[in-house]
Amino acid sequence: GAGVSQSPSNKVTEKGKDVELRCDPISGHTALYWYRQRLGQGLEFLIYFQGNSAPDKSGLPSDRFSAERTGESVSTLTIQRTQQEDSAVYLCASSLGSRSYNEQFFGPGTRLTVL
Amino acid sequence: AQSVTQLGSHVSVSEGALVLLRCNYSSSVPPYLFWYVQYPNQGLQLLLKYTTGATLVKGINGFEAEFKKSETSFHLTKPSAHMSDAAEYFCAVSGVGAGNMLTFGGGTRLMVKP
Questions:
Q1: What is the C-alpha to C-alpha distance for residues A70 and A52, in angstroms, rounded to an integer?
Q2: pLDDT in tens, A10-39
Q3: Which of A6, B26, B65, B69 has the largest count of CB atoms under 10 Å?
Q4: Does B95 or A52 have the greater pLDDT score?
Q5: Nearest CA to CA, how far is B19 from chain A (Å)?
C-alpha cells in the first residue's frame, strides 16, 4: 500500500530564498507531523496537525517557518528567507490519530541544502 | 520536559554477536517508548514499542527491548547480529497528553563487521 510520500527528495537553494516542502500522508490518517533531522543529530519535532488544525506549533524554530494542511490530506512546510542553519532532512509522519499509542509512519524525507 | 539519551553514537559488532543499544529517558508520566530504525536513504521504520503491560517487547527482525522503570531505560537487544542490521537506530518517547509528538534520542549507528 502507499506510504507517506514527500517531495522533493532533494532541494538545493540559495540563502535568502523561500522553499516549500510537501508531504502526502497515508490516506485516512488524521494526524500529521513534521520533524527536522540535522546532520548527526536526532529528530526535532516541528509541528503537528490534527485534521487541518495545528494545535502545537511549539517546535517551529522561528517565524520564518510555517506549515499548512488541506483537510486531512497534503501538508506543506514553508521556510522563508532560508539560512544555512536550515540545512537538514525534513521528515513527515502520519498516524491514524494523535494518541500516544498511535504509530507514526514516516516518509523518506526531503534533504534541504542551503548554500 | 521529556528527554531521551542514547549512549554511544556509533556501535560496532561482529556478525553473529550480541547487539545492545542503550536508551535512557526522562519523563514525568508513564512513558510510551519506541525504537525506530533508519536504513540508508530510507524513512524511519518502527521496530517495536512499549505502551503498557509486558515490559519485554518483541519487535521485527529479531529485536527486543525491555522497559525498566527503576532504571528509566529501554535498551534494544538482538542475540545475533546480521549484516543487514547495519543502520541507524533511534529511541523515542511519546508526548504527554494529546498530540503524541515524539522526542528522539540522538541516534546510534550500528555497524556490523563480517
A1: 6
A2: 999 999 999 999 999 999 999 999 999 998
A3: B65
A4: A52
A5: 20
Residue to mutate among B42, B94, B101, B109, with most A CBs inside 10 A, is: B101
For residues B47 and B36, the answer to whether their CB atoms sit within 8 Å is yes
Place of cell 547487539: B19
Say whether pLDDT at B99 is over 70: no
Q: CA-to-CA distance for A45 and B3, rounded, in angstroms?
A: 12
CA–CA gap between residue B102 and residue B49 (Å, rounded): 12
Scanning A61-90 for CB atoms below 8 A from B yields none
Q: Are B84 and B28 in contact (CB under 8 A)?
A: no
Q: Are A95 and A67 in contact (CB under 8 A)?
A: no
